[in-house]
Amino acid sequence: MNQSDETPNPRAAGGCLCGQVRYRVTGPLRQVVNCHCGQCLRTHGHFAAYTGADRHHVEIIEDGTLKWYLSSDKARRGFCGECGSSLFWEPAGGGTIGIAAGTLDPPTGLRTIAHLYIGDKPDYYDLADDLPQFPGAAGDRG
Question: What pairs with residue 52 in β-bridges?
């Protein structure tokens, strides 16, 4: 995503269902993208809506039950070991972190801007909006 896809200077917070993992974001959040990849489908039980931020702008303020799962050689996923909430997606060696948009405290001020990995989308739902669709990550040409 490019700079115009960021919300300027938001202050956001969020956490898991049981409240044992809490975080805050002190810098800009990327607008939301819906990921339809096979891993997100299995992790979330449906497609996943993710925002993102520079890693150094995300502070974990309660992490007693935060667990990390190395889901591939490209990324790890953070979740609450108590309630199971899926919270983060962090690329290996990257300076960013994906944040499950539904874990943010409202209001977020964000909007959904694209669908990713639509080639993995299952047959039980349709995409009925006019948002851009990508066969892989945004910018991939398949």
Answer: 98
Q: Are 1 and 86 within 8 A, CB to CB?
A: no
Q: Please classify residue 44 by burial: count the beta carbons closer than 10 Å to its beta carbon, then call 0-12 exposed, 13-18 middle and 19+ buried.
A: middle
Instruction: Return the structure tokens found at 39.
Output: 């891993």
pTM (predicted TM-score) = 0.89
CATH of the domain at 37: 2.170.150.70
Give per-residue pLDDT as tens, 27-76. 999 999 999 999 999 999 999 999 999 999 999 999 999 999 999 999 99
CA within 13 Å, CB half, 127 = 19
Find, among 26, 24, 46, 27, the residue nearest to 35 by Cα.
46
Are the beta carbons of 69 and 57 closer than 8 angstroms? no
Let me know if residue 42 belongs to a domain.
yes
The number of folded domains in the chain is 1
Q: Which residues of 61-72 are buried (b: 16+ CB within 10 A; e: fewer)?
A: eeeebbeeeeee
Token pair belonging to 32: 């939301």
Note whether residue 67 is domain-resident. yes
Token readout for 24 is 């805050």
